[in-house]
Specification:
Number of helices of chain B: 12
Shape of chain A: globular
Number of strands of chain B: 13
Shape of chain B: elongated
Largest sheet of chain A: 2 strands, antiparallel
Number of strands of chain A: 2
Strand content of chain A: under 5%
Largest interface: A-B, 27 and 33 residues
Oligomer: heterodimer
Helix content of chain B: 25-40%
Radius of gyration of chain B: 24 Å
Distance between the termini of chain A: 33 Å
Structural class of chain A: mainly alpha
Chain lengths: ~270, ~325
Protein backbone atom coordinates (compact mmCIF):
# COMPACT_ATOMS: atom_id res chain seq x y z
CA UNK A 1 0.00 0.00 0.00
CA UNK A 2 1.31 3.43 -0.83
CA UNK A 3 1.71 6.12 1.80
CA UNK A 4 -1.35 8.05 0.60
CA UNK A 5 -3.46 4.87 0.53
CA UNK A 6 -2.51 4.16 4.13
CA UNK A 7 -3.44 7.70 5.20
CA UNK A 8 -6.69 7.41 3.25
CA UNK A 9 -7.52 4.11 4.95
CA UNK A 10 -7.16 5.73 8.37
CA UNK A 11 -9.07 8.84 7.37
CA UNK A 12 -11.98 6.61 6.39
CA UNK A 13 -11.56 4.62 9.61
CA UNK A 14 -11.65 7.85 11.61
CA UNK A 15 -14.83 8.93 9.81
CA UNK A 16 -16.39 5.55 10.55
CA UNK A 17 -15.57 5.99 14.24
CA UNK A 18 -17.30 9.37 14.52
CA UNK A 19 -20.96 10.07 15.17
CA UNK A 20 -21.19 12.96 12.74
CA UNK A 21 -20.48 10.62 9.83
CA UNK A 22 -23.44 8.45 10.75
CA UNK A 23 -25.54 11.54 11.36
CA UNK A 24 -24.81 12.66 7.81
CA UNK A 25 -25.31 9.31 6.12
CA UNK A 26 -28.33 8.62 8.33
CA UNK A 27 -29.94 11.93 7.33
CA UNK A 28 -29.27 11.19 3.65
CA UNK A 29 -31.02 7.84 4.05
CA UNK A 30 -33.88 9.16 6.13
CA UNK A 31 -35.01 11.90 3.73
CA UNK A 32 -36.27 9.57 0.92
CA UNK A 33 -38.01 7.37 3.51
CA UNK A 34 -39.87 10.35 4.98
CA UNK A 35 -40.64 11.52 1.45
CA UNK A 36 -42.23 8.18 0.53
CA UNK A 37 -44.15 7.90 3.80
CA UNK A 38 -45.61 11.41 3.41
CA UNK A 39 -46.68 10.66 -0.16
CA UNK A 40 -48.28 7.43 1.01
CA UNK A 41 -50.34 9.35 3.55
CA UNK A 42 -51.23 12.28 1.29
CA UNK A 43 -52.91 12.05 -2.06
CA UNK A 44 -51.18 15.00 -3.77
CA UNK A 45 -47.66 15.06 -5.13
CA UNK A 46 -44.76 17.31 -6.13
CA UNK A 47 -46.35 18.01 -9.50
CA UNK A 48 -44.46 21.21 -10.20
CA UNK A 49 -40.97 19.64 -10.25
CA UNK A 50 -39.42 17.58 -13.05
CA UNK A 51 -40.60 13.94 -12.82
CA UNK A 52 -42.77 14.91 -9.85
CA UNK A 53 -45.95 13.87 -11.60
CA UNK A 54 -44.57 10.36 -12.17
CA UNK A 55 -43.43 9.84 -8.58
CA UNK A 56 -45.95 7.03 -8.06
CA UNK A 57 -45.08 5.31 -11.36
CA UNK A 58 -41.95 3.61 -10.09
CA UNK A 59 -39.58 3.50 -7.12
CA UNK A 60 -36.73 4.55 -9.41
CA UNK A 61 -38.23 8.03 -9.66
CA UNK A 62 -38.08 8.58 -5.87
CA UNK A 63 -34.36 9.36 -5.50
CA UNK A 64 -34.43 11.56 -8.60
CA UNK A 65 -37.15 13.75 -7.15
CA UNK A 66 -35.45 13.77 -3.74
CA UNK A 67 -32.20 14.96 -5.41
CA UNK A 68 -34.01 18.08 -6.42
CA UNK A 69 -35.32 18.83 -2.94
CA UNK A 70 -32.01 18.16 -1.25
CA UNK A 71 -29.86 20.29 -3.55
CA UNK A 72 -30.89 23.58 -1.92
CA UNK A 73 -29.44 22.87 1.52
CA UNK A 74 -29.93 19.20 2.46
CA UNK A 75 -26.93 17.69 0.68
CA UNK A 76 -24.76 20.82 1.07
CA UNK A 77 -25.33 20.69 4.84
CA UNK A 78 -24.61 16.97 5.09
CA UNK A 79 -21.48 17.44 2.99
CA UNK A 80 -20.29 20.45 5.00
CA UNK A 81 -20.75 18.47 8.22
CA UNK A 82 -17.70 16.36 7.35
CA UNK A 83 -15.80 18.54 4.86
CA UNK A 84 -15.76 21.53 7.20
CA UNK A 85 -14.65 19.36 10.08
CA UNK A 86 -11.99 17.08 8.67
CA UNK A 87 -8.97 19.35 9.18
CA UNK A 88 -10.33 21.87 11.69
CA UNK A 89 -11.34 19.22 14.22
CA UNK A 90 -7.81 17.81 14.19
CA UNK A 91 -6.38 21.28 14.68
CA UNK A 92 -8.70 21.86 17.61
CA UNK A 93 -8.00 18.47 19.18
CA UNK A 94 -4.27 18.80 18.64
CA UNK A 95 -4.09 15.50 16.74
CA UNK A 96 -2.86 17.25 13.60
CA UNK A 97 0.52 17.80 15.23
CA UNK A 98 0.49 14.16 16.35
CA UNK A 99 0.22 12.87 12.79
CA UNK A 100 2.45 15.57 11.30
CA UNK A 101 5.37 14.55 13.50
CA UNK A 102 5.49 11.06 11.98
CA UNK A 103 7.00 10.03 8.64
CA UNK A 104 4.25 11.19 6.28
CA UNK A 105 4.68 14.39 4.32
CA UNK A 106 2.03 17.04 4.72
CA UNK A 107 1.00 16.61 1.10
CA UNK A 108 0.31 12.91 1.69
CA UNK A 109 -1.78 13.64 4.78
CA UNK A 110 -3.75 16.25 2.84
CA UNK A 111 -4.33 13.89 -0.10
CA UNK A 112 -5.69 11.24 2.28
CA UNK A 113 -8.05 13.74 3.88
CA UNK A 114 -9.28 15.08 0.54
CA UNK A 115 -9.92 11.57 -0.81
CA UNK A 116 -11.80 10.63 2.35
CA UNK A 117 -13.94 13.77 2.07
CA UNK A 118 -14.88 12.96 -1.52
CA UNK A 119 -15.56 9.35 -0.61
CA UNK A 120 -18.00 10.50 2.04
CA UNK A 121 -19.62 12.91 -0.44
CA UNK A 122 -20.20 10.11 -2.92
CA UNK A 123 -21.36 7.80 -0.14
CA UNK A 124 -24.16 10.10 1.05
CA UNK A 125 -25.51 10.49 -2.49
CA UNK A 126 -25.37 6.76 -3.21
CA UNK A 127 -26.91 5.96 0.20
CA UNK A 128 -29.82 8.26 -0.53
CA UNK A 129 -30.23 6.72 -3.99
CA UNK A 130 -30.25 3.12 -2.80
CA UNK A 131 -32.63 3.80 0.08
CA UNK A 132 -34.80 5.96 -2.18
CA UNK A 133 -35.19 3.22 -4.78
CA UNK A 134 -35.87 0.64 -2.07
CA UNK A 135 -38.45 2.76 -0.24
CA UNK A 136 -40.09 3.93 -3.46
CA UNK A 137 -40.24 0.40 -4.85
CA UNK A 138 -41.85 -0.90 -1.66
CA UNK A 139 -44.50 1.82 -1.96
CA UNK A 140 -45.10 1.85 -5.72
CA UNK A 141 -43.18 -1.05 -7.23
CA UNK A 142 -40.16 -1.30 -9.48
CA UNK A 143 -41.59 -0.39 -12.89
CA UNK A 144 -40.83 1.47 -16.04
CA UNK A 145 -41.52 5.20 -15.91
CA UNK A 146 -41.85 8.26 -18.15
CA UNK A 147 -38.80 10.32 -19.06
CA UNK A 148 -38.65 14.12 -19.12
CA UNK A 149 -39.29 13.92 -22.87
CA UNK A 150 -42.47 11.91 -22.28
CA UNK A 151 -41.07 8.63 -23.59
CA UNK A 152 -41.16 5.40 -21.58
CA UNK A 153 -38.00 4.21 -19.80
CA UNK A 154 -37.69 0.55 -18.86
CA UNK A 155 -36.98 -0.26 -15.21
CA UNK A 156 -33.53 -1.72 -15.91
CA UNK A 157 -32.38 1.18 -18.04
CA UNK A 158 -34.00 3.62 -15.64
CA UNK A 159 -31.97 2.19 -12.74
CA UNK A 160 -28.76 2.68 -14.76
CA UNK A 161 -29.76 6.25 -15.60
CA UNK A 162 -30.59 6.89 -11.97
CA UNK A 163 -27.08 5.86 -10.84
CA UNK A 164 -25.52 7.90 -13.66
CA UNK A 165 -27.57 10.84 -12.43
CA UNK A 166 -26.31 10.34 -8.86
CA UNK A 167 -22.72 10.33 -10.14
CA UNK A 168 -23.20 13.59 -12.06
CA UNK A 169 -25.00 15.09 -9.08
CA UNK A 170 -22.07 14.21 -6.81
CA UNK A 171 -19.72 16.41 -8.87
CA UNK A 172 -21.01 19.86 -7.84
CA UNK A 173 -21.46 18.46 -4.35
CA UNK A 174 -17.75 17.64 -4.40
CA UNK A 175 -17.20 21.30 -5.28
CA UNK A 176 -18.96 22.23 -2.06
CA UNK A 177 -16.89 19.62 -0.23
CA UNK A 178 -13.67 21.13 -1.62
CA UNK A 179 -14.77 24.56 -0.45
CA UNK A 180 -15.51 23.11 3.00
CA UNK A 181 -12.08 21.53 3.07
CA UNK A 182 -10.51 24.90 2.25
CA UNK A 183 -12.38 26.63 5.08
CA UNK A 184 -11.56 23.76 7.41
CA UNK A 185 -7.87 24.22 6.64
CA UNK A 186 -7.89 28.01 6.92
CA UNK A 187 -10.22 28.71 9.83
CA UNK A 188 -9.15 25.86 12.15
CA UNK A 189 -12.67 26.07 13.54
CA UNK A 190 -14.98 23.18 12.79
CA UNK A 191 -18.33 24.81 13.54
CA UNK A 192 -17.47 28.00 11.64
CA UNK A 193 -16.30 26.00 8.62
CA UNK A 194 -19.45 23.88 8.53
CA UNK A 195 -21.73 26.92 8.73
CA UNK A 196 -19.71 29.00 6.25
CA UNK A 197 -19.66 26.11 3.75
CA UNK A 198 -23.43 25.88 3.93
CA UNK A 199 -23.67 29.66 3.49
CA UNK A 200 -21.45 29.37 0.39
CA UNK A 201 -23.77 26.73 -1.08
CA UNK A 202 -26.86 28.80 -0.35
CA UNK A 203 -25.19 31.88 -1.81
CA UNK A 204 -24.42 30.02 -5.04
CA UNK A 205 -28.09 29.05 -5.26
CA UNK A 206 -29.19 32.60 -4.45
CA UNK A 207 -27.17 34.19 -7.25
CA UNK A 208 -28.91 31.84 -9.65
CA UNK A 209 -32.41 33.08 -8.79
CA UNK A 210 -31.59 36.80 -8.79
CA UNK A 211 -32.91 38.69 -11.81
CA UNK A 212 -30.22 39.71 -14.26
CA UNK A 213 -28.01 36.69 -13.65
CA UNK A 214 -29.37 34.69 -16.56
CA UNK A 215 -26.11 35.11 -18.51
CA UNK A 216 -23.93 33.48 -15.86
CA UNK A 217 -26.54 31.04 -14.60
CA UNK A 218 -25.30 28.04 -16.62
CA UNK A 219 -21.88 28.45 -15.00
CA UNK A 220 -22.98 28.64 -11.38
CA UNK A 221 -22.29 25.72 -9.10
CA UNK A 222 -25.97 25.45 -8.09
CA UNK A 223 -27.06 25.00 -11.68
CA UNK A 224 -24.91 21.88 -12.03
CA UNK A 225 -27.19 20.08 -9.57
CA UNK A 226 -29.73 19.88 -12.39
CA UNK A 227 -27.29 18.61 -15.05
CA UNK A 228 -28.50 15.01 -14.63
CA UNK A 229 -31.81 16.00 -16.27
CA UNK A 230 -29.91 15.52 -19.54
CA UNK A 231 -29.83 11.77 -18.93
CA UNK A 232 -33.59 11.63 -18.53
CA UNK A 233 -34.30 13.06 -21.98
CA UNK A 234 -34.72 11.17 -25.20
CA UNK A 235 -32.30 11.40 -26.87
CA UNK A 236 -29.99 12.12 -23.96
CA UNK A 237 -28.88 15.76 -23.76
CA UNK A 238 -25.14 15.63 -23.08
CA UNK A 239 -24.53 19.39 -23.10
CA UNK A 240 -25.46 20.06 -19.45
CA UNK A 241 -23.71 16.88 -18.33
CA UNK A 242 -20.46 17.84 -20.03
CA UNK A 243 -20.69 21.38 -18.73
CA UNK A 244 -21.24 20.01 -15.21
CA UNK A 245 -18.13 17.87 -15.62
CA UNK A 246 -15.69 20.62 -16.47
CA UNK A 247 -17.31 23.32 -14.36
CA UNK A 248 -17.38 21.08 -11.30
CA UNK A 249 -13.76 20.21 -11.98
CA UNK A 250 -12.93 23.92 -11.69
CA UNK A 251 -15.10 24.37 -8.60
CA UNK A 252 -13.28 21.42 -7.04
CA UNK A 253 -9.76 22.20 -8.21
CA UNK A 254 -9.53 25.87 -7.18
CA UNK A 255 -10.42 25.54 -3.47
CA UNK A 256 -8.66 22.17 -3.28
CA UNK A 257 -5.44 23.66 -4.56
CA UNK A 258 -5.81 26.61 -2.18
CA UNK A 259 -6.36 24.25 0.74
CA UNK A 260 -3.35 22.17 -0.31
CA UNK A 261 -1.03 25.18 -0.43
CA UNK A 262 -2.26 26.45 2.94
CA UNK A 263 -1.97 22.99 4.50
CA UNK A 264 1.63 22.61 3.32
CA UNK A 265 2.75 25.92 4.75
CA UNK A 266 0.55 26.60 7.72
CA UNK A 267 1.66 26.69 11.32
CA UNK A 268 0.36 23.83 13.40
CA UNK A 269 0.06 25.53 16.75
CA UNK A 270 -1.96 24.54 19.75
CA UNK A 271 -5.59 25.02 20.50
CA UNK B 1 23.86 10.81 9.18
CA UNK B 2 24.24 9.35 12.67
CA UNK B 3 27.32 11.45 13.38
CA UNK B 4 25.33 14.66 13.07
CA UNK B 5 24.40 16.64 16.17
CA UNK B 6 20.85 15.82 17.28
CA UNK B 7 19.67 19.43 17.65
CA UNK B 8 21.25 22.59 16.29
CA UNK B 9 19.03 25.67 16.33
CA UNK B 10 20.45 29.00 15.27
CA UNK B 11 18.77 32.37 15.66
CA UNK B 12 15.24 30.99 15.84
CA UNK B 13 12.71 33.81 15.84
CA UNK B 14 8.93 33.56 15.84
CA UNK B 15 6.83 36.67 15.63
CA UNK B 16 3.04 36.83 15.67
CA UNK B 17 2.33 40.33 14.44
CA UNK B 18 3.60 42.60 17.19
CA UNK B 19 4.21 39.81 19.65
CA UNK B 20 7.63 38.21 19.68
CA UNK B 21 7.19 34.69 21.03
CA UNK B 22 10.77 33.60 20.43
CA UNK B 23 13.44 36.25 20.01
CA UNK B 24 16.48 34.45 18.66
CA UNK B 25 17.12 31.08 20.25
CA UNK B 26 20.33 29.10 19.78
CA UNK B 27 20.23 25.56 21.09
CA UNK B 28 22.68 22.73 20.73
CA UNK B 29 21.88 19.27 22.03
CA UNK B 30 24.73 16.79 21.76
CA UNK B 31 24.45 13.04 21.41
CA UNK B 32 23.71 11.34 24.71
CA UNK B 33 22.51 14.52 26.41
CA UNK B 34 19.55 14.63 28.68
CA UNK B 35 18.95 18.26 27.97
CA UNK B 36 16.67 20.28 30.21
CA UNK B 37 14.86 23.16 28.60
CA UNK B 38 13.64 25.45 31.33
CA UNK B 39 11.56 28.55 31.41
CA UNK B 40 8.49 30.10 32.98
CA UNK B 41 5.15 29.59 31.25
CA UNK B 42 4.92 31.74 28.16
CA UNK B 43 8.69 32.15 27.85
CA UNK B 44 8.71 30.50 24.42
CA UNK B 45 9.65 26.91 25.24
CA UNK B 46 6.79 25.27 23.38
CA UNK B 47 7.00 27.65 20.42
CA UNK B 48 10.68 26.89 19.95
CA UNK B 49 10.05 23.15 20.25
CA UNK B 50 7.36 23.48 17.57
CA UNK B 51 9.86 25.15 15.30
CA UNK B 52 12.38 22.38 15.94
CA UNK B 53 9.83 19.83 14.76
CA UNK B 54 8.77 21.85 11.74
CA UNK B 55 5.22 22.29 13.00
CA UNK B 56 5.51 26.06 12.67
CA UNK B 57 7.73 28.07 10.37
CA UNK B 58 10.32 30.29 12.02
CA UNK B 59 10.14 33.98 11.15
CA UNK B 60 13.93 33.81 11.04
CA UNK B 61 16.66 31.31 11.82
CA UNK B 62 17.07 27.61 11.23
CA UNK B 63 16.75 24.38 13.11
CA UNK B 64 18.45 21.14 12.19
CA UNK B 65 17.77 17.70 13.56
CA UNK B 66 20.70 15.40 12.80
CA UNK B 67 21.67 17.92 10.17
CA UNK B 68 18.30 18.19 8.43
CA UNK B 69 16.03 21.21 8.42
CA UNK B 70 12.36 20.17 8.83
CA UNK B 71 11.18 23.16 6.80
CA UNK B 72 13.34 22.11 3.85
CA UNK B 73 13.30 18.34 4.22
CA UNK B 74 9.75 17.87 5.55
CA UNK B 75 9.02 14.60 7.30
CA UNK B 76 12.42 13.16 6.34
CA UNK B 77 14.01 15.58 8.80
CA UNK B 78 12.16 13.76 11.58
CA UNK B 79 13.82 10.44 10.84
CA UNK B 80 15.06 9.10 14.16
CA UNK B 81 13.17 11.84 15.99
CA UNK B 82 10.01 11.47 18.06
CA UNK B 83 8.20 13.25 20.81
CA UNK B 84 5.38 15.62 21.55
CA UNK B 85 4.78 19.29 22.17
CA UNK B 86 2.23 20.59 24.64
CA UNK B 87 1.09 17.16 25.73
CA UNK B 88 0.44 14.17 23.51
CA UNK B 89 -2.90 14.22 21.68
CA UNK B 90 -4.83 11.22 20.41
CA UNK B 91 -8.13 10.39 18.79
CA UNK B 92 -10.47 10.03 21.77
CA UNK B 93 -12.91 7.85 19.84
CA UNK B 94 -10.27 5.22 19.01
CA UNK B 95 -8.72 2.76 21.45
CA UNK B 96 -5.15 3.17 22.64
CA UNK B 97 -4.03 0.33 20.44
CA UNK B 98 -5.89 1.66 17.38
CA UNK B 99 -4.26 5.05 17.93
CA UNK B 100 -0.86 3.39 17.91
CA UNK B 101 -1.75 1.33 14.83
CA UNK B 102 -2.80 4.50 13.07
CA UNK B 103 0.45 6.24 13.97
CA UNK B 104 2.47 3.18 12.97
CA UNK B 105 0.86 3.40 9.52
CA UNK B 106 2.05 7.00 9.34
CA UNK B 107 5.56 5.65 9.97
CA UNK B 108 7.75 3.07 8.32
CA UNK B 109 6.18 -0.39 7.94
CA UNK B 110 8.47 -1.96 10.56
CA UNK B 111 7.01 0.22 13.27
CA UNK B 112 3.86 -1.84 13.66
CA UNK B 113 5.60 -4.86 15.15
CA UNK B 114 6.67 -2.75 18.13
CA UNK B 115 3.18 -1.85 19.38
CA UNK B 116 2.92 -4.57 22.01
CA UNK B 117 6.44 -3.92 23.18
CA UNK B 118 5.90 -0.20 23.79
CA UNK B 119 2.49 -0.73 25.39
CA UNK B 120 4.18 -3.14 27.78
CA UNK B 121 6.93 -0.65 28.50
CA UNK B 122 4.52 2.11 29.58
CA UNK B 123 2.26 -0.40 31.35
CA UNK B 124 -0.79 0.25 29.23
CA UNK B 125 -1.25 -3.19 27.75
CA UNK B 126 -4.28 -3.99 29.91
CA UNK B 127 -6.07 -0.79 28.87
CA UNK B 128 -4.99 -0.81 25.22
CA UNK B 129 -8.42 -1.86 23.96
CA UNK B 130 -10.23 0.99 25.74
CA UNK B 131 -10.97 4.29 24.06
CA UNK B 132 -8.45 7.01 24.73
CA UNK B 133 -11.40 9.29 25.60
CA UNK B 134 -11.69 7.38 28.87
CA UNK B 135 -7.98 7.56 29.73
CA UNK B 136 -6.66 9.55 32.68
CA UNK B 137 -4.17 12.33 32.07
CA UNK B 138 -1.31 10.13 33.23
CA UNK B 139 -2.32 7.33 30.87
CA UNK B 140 -2.35 9.75 27.95
CA UNK B 141 1.12 10.98 28.87
CA UNK B 142 2.30 7.37 28.93
CA UNK B 143 0.60 6.63 25.62
CA UNK B 144 2.43 9.68 24.28
CA UNK B 145 5.74 8.15 25.29
CA UNK B 146 4.66 4.83 23.76
CA UNK B 147 3.73 6.55 20.50
CA UNK B 148 7.13 8.22 20.43
CA UNK B 149 9.01 5.02 21.17
CA UNK B 150 7.24 3.27 18.29
CA UNK B 151 9.59 5.18 16.04
CA UNK B 152 12.66 3.80 17.84
CA UNK B 153 13.98 7.35 18.11
CA UNK B 154 17.57 8.47 18.56
CA UNK B 155 16.26 11.84 19.73
CA UNK B 156 13.22 12.22 21.97
CA UNK B 157 11.56 15.60 22.48
CA UNK B 158 9.32 15.70 25.52
CA UNK B 159 7.40 18.83 26.37
CA UNK B 160 6.59 18.82 30.08
CA UNK B 161 6.07 15.06 30.27
CA UNK B 162 5.36 15.00 34.01
CA UNK B 163 3.00 17.96 34.15
CA UNK B 164 -0.31 17.07 35.75
CA UNK B 165 0.84 13.68 36.98
CA UNK B 166 0.44 12.57 40.57
CA UNK B 167 3.62 12.04 42.61
CA UNK B 168 3.83 8.34 41.76
CA UNK B 169 3.23 9.10 38.10
CA UNK B 170 5.97 11.72 38.15
CA UNK B 171 8.39 9.26 39.70
CA UNK B 172 7.49 6.64 37.08
CA UNK B 173 7.99 9.21 34.34
CA UNK B 174 11.43 10.15 35.70
CA UNK B 175 12.38 6.48 35.93
CA UNK B 176 11.29 5.97 32.34
CA UNK B 177 13.24 8.97 31.07
CA UNK B 178 16.33 7.81 32.96
CA UNK B 179 15.96 4.34 31.52
CA UNK B 180 15.57 5.63 27.96
CA UNK B 181 18.60 7.87 28.41
CA UNK B 182 20.45 4.81 29.65
CA UNK B 183 19.62 3.09 26.39
CA UNK B 184 21.47 5.85 24.57
CA UNK B 185 18.55 7.97 23.45
CA UNK B 186 19.28 11.69 23.39
CA UNK B 187 16.52 13.50 25.25
CA UNK B 188 15.36 17.09 25.06
CA UNK B 189 13.03 17.65 27.97
CA UNK B 190 11.19 20.87 28.58
CA UNK B 191 10.00 21.41 32.09
CA UNK B 192 9.27 23.89 34.76
CA UNK B 193 9.73 21.27 37.46
CA UNK B 194 13.23 22.15 38.55
CA UNK B 195 13.93 19.17 40.76
CA UNK B 196 12.99 16.96 37.83
CA UNK B 197 15.58 18.68 35.67
CA UNK B 198 18.13 18.68 38.48
CA UNK B 199 17.67 14.96 38.88
CA UNK B 200 17.64 13.95 35.21
CA UNK B 201 19.57 16.37 33.08
CA UNK B 202 23.25 16.85 32.39
CA UNK B 203 22.82 20.04 30.39
CA UNK B 204 20.27 22.81 30.54
CA UNK B 205 19.11 25.90 28.73
CA UNK B 206 17.04 28.54 30.45
CA UNK B 207 14.74 30.66 28.33
CA UNK B 208 13.20 33.90 29.45
CA UNK B 209 10.93 36.15 27.39
CA UNK B 210 11.92 34.37 24.20
CA UNK B 211 15.69 34.46 24.73
CA UNK B 212 18.15 31.96 26.14
CA UNK B 213 19.69 33.35 29.32
CA UNK B 214 21.86 30.35 30.16
CA UNK B 215 23.00 27.29 28.29
CA UNK B 216 25.55 24.79 29.49
CA UNK B 217 26.30 21.94 31.84
CA UNK B 218 24.01 21.71 34.84
CA UNK B 219 26.95 20.96 37.13
CA UNK B 220 28.75 24.13 36.06
CA UNK B 221 25.65 26.17 36.58
CA UNK B 222 25.21 24.84 40.11
CA UNK B 223 28.93 25.16 40.86
CA UNK B 224 28.85 28.87 40.11
CA UNK B 225 26.61 29.37 43.07
CA UNK B 226 27.85 26.72 45.49
CA UNK B 227 30.47 28.76 47.31
CA UNK B 228 28.52 30.21 50.23
CA UNK B 229 28.43 29.22 53.89
CA UNK B 230 26.05 29.99 56.70
CA UNK B 231 27.08 30.28 60.34
CA UNK B 232 24.73 30.37 63.33
CA UNK B 233 26.12 30.95 66.79
CA UNK B 234 25.04 31.95 70.31
CA UNK B 235 27.20 35.07 70.01
CA UNK B 236 26.89 36.57 66.55
CA UNK B 237 28.62 39.85 67.41
CA UNK B 238 31.80 38.19 68.65
CA UNK B 239 31.70 35.69 65.84
CA UNK B 240 31.50 38.50 63.32
CA UNK B 241 34.51 40.24 64.82
CA UNK B 242 36.44 37.00 64.68
CA UNK B 243 35.45 36.33 61.07
CA UNK B 244 36.59 39.75 60.00
CA UNK B 245 40.10 38.91 61.17
CA UNK B 246 40.07 35.39 59.79
CA UNK B 247 41.99 34.74 56.58
CA UNK B 248 40.02 33.49 53.59
CA UNK B 249 36.59 34.55 54.85
CA UNK B 250 35.14 36.83 52.22
CA UNK B 251 31.94 38.71 51.49
CA UNK B 252 30.85 38.56 55.08
CA UNK B 253 27.24 39.56 55.64
CA UNK B 254 25.36 39.58 58.94
CA UNK B 255 21.82 38.44 58.46
CA UNK B 256 19.96 38.64 61.78
CA UNK B 257 21.76 36.23 64.11
CA UNK B 258 23.27 34.44 61.11
CA UNK B 259 26.46 35.16 59.26
CA UNK B 260 26.92 34.42 55.60
CA UNK B 261 30.21 34.38 53.78
CA UNK B 262 32.14 32.76 51.00
CA UNK B 263 35.27 30.74 51.59
CA UNK B 264 37.12 27.63 50.48
CA UNK B 265 37.08 24.48 52.60
CA UNK B 266 40.44 25.10 54.29
CA UNK B 267 39.37 28.54 55.45
CA UNK B 268 36.13 27.11 56.84
CA UNK B 269 38.04 24.41 58.69
CA UNK B 270 40.34 27.01 60.22
CA UNK B 271 37.37 29.16 61.15
CA UNK B 272 35.65 26.36 63.04
CA UNK B 273 38.79 25.73 65.08
CA UNK B 274 39.17 29.45 65.76
CA UNK B 275 35.56 29.71 66.93
CA UNK B 276 36.11 26.77 69.28
CA UNK B 277 39.26 28.27 70.73
CA UNK B 278 37.44 31.55 71.29
CA UNK B 279 34.66 29.56 73.06
CA UNK B 280 32.00 30.82 70.70
CA UNK B 281 29.34 28.06 70.55
CA UNK B 282 28.54 26.98 67.01
CA UNK B 283 24.89 26.06 66.43
CA UNK B 284 25.18 25.54 62.70
CA UNK B 285 27.86 25.81 60.07
CA UNK B 286 26.51 24.75 56.69
CA UNK B 287 27.08 25.30 53.01
CA UNK B 288 24.65 27.79 51.59
CA UNK B 289 24.15 26.15 48.21
CA UNK B 290 21.94 27.79 45.67
CA UNK B 291 19.55 25.27 44.21
CA UNK B 292 18.63 25.25 40.57
CA UNK B 293 15.43 26.90 41.71
CA UNK B 294 17.31 29.86 43.21
CA UNK B 295 19.35 30.21 40.04
CA UNK B 296 16.32 29.85 37.85
CA UNK B 297 14.31 32.44 39.76
CA UNK B 298 17.29 34.76 39.77
CA UNK B 299 17.57 34.47 36.02
CA UNK B 300 13.92 34.65 35.12
CA UNK B 301 12.52 37.22 37.55
CA UNK B 302 14.12 40.05 35.63
CA UNK B 303 16.06 41.31 38.67
CA UNK B 304 19.19 41.75 36.65
CA UNK B 305 20.05 42.18 33.02
CA UNK B 306 23.32 40.33 33.48
CA UNK B 307 22.19 37.10 31.83
CA UNK B 308 25.66 35.83 31.02
CA UNK B 309 26.86 35.45 34.56
CA UNK B 310 24.41 33.44 36.63
CA UNK B 311 26.81 33.48 39.61
CA UNK B 312 26.42 37.21 39.90
CA UNK B 313 22.67 36.82 40.06
CA UNK B 314 22.68 33.99 42.51
CA UNK B 315 25.03 35.63 44.96
CA UNK B 316 22.48 38.19 46.06
Amino acid sequence: MTAVARVYKWEVAKLLAQKRTYLGIGAAMLVPVIFVVVLQIQSGGPNDVPLGRYIRDSGIVTPLVVLLFMSIWGFPLITALVAGDIVAAETQNGTLKTILTRSRERGQVFAGKALATFTYTLAIVVAMGVVGVAAGSIAWGFHSFTSLSGTPVSAGRGLGLMFASLAVYALPLAGIAAFGLLLSTITRNSAASVVATLMFALFMQLIGVLPGTEGIRPYLLGTQFDAWHGFLRTPADWAPVIRALWLSAIYIAVPLFGAYVVFLRRDVAGD
Amino acid sequence: MTDETPVVARGLVKRYGEIVAVAGVDLTVERGDVFGYLGPNGAGKTTSLRMLLGLIRPTAGTSRLFGRDPIEAGARALEGVAGFVEGPRFYPYLSGRRNLRLLADYDEPTTRSRIDEVLELVELRDRAKDRVGGYSHGMRQRLGIAASLLRAPRLLLLDEPATGLDPAGMRDMRDLVRRLAGEGITILLSSHLLYEVEELCNRVAIIRKGSIVYQGALGELLATAATGYRLKTREPARAKALCLNQRGIENLVADGDELRFSADEDAVAALSVALGQARIPILQLTTDTASLEDLFLGMTDGESSDHDRPAALAAS
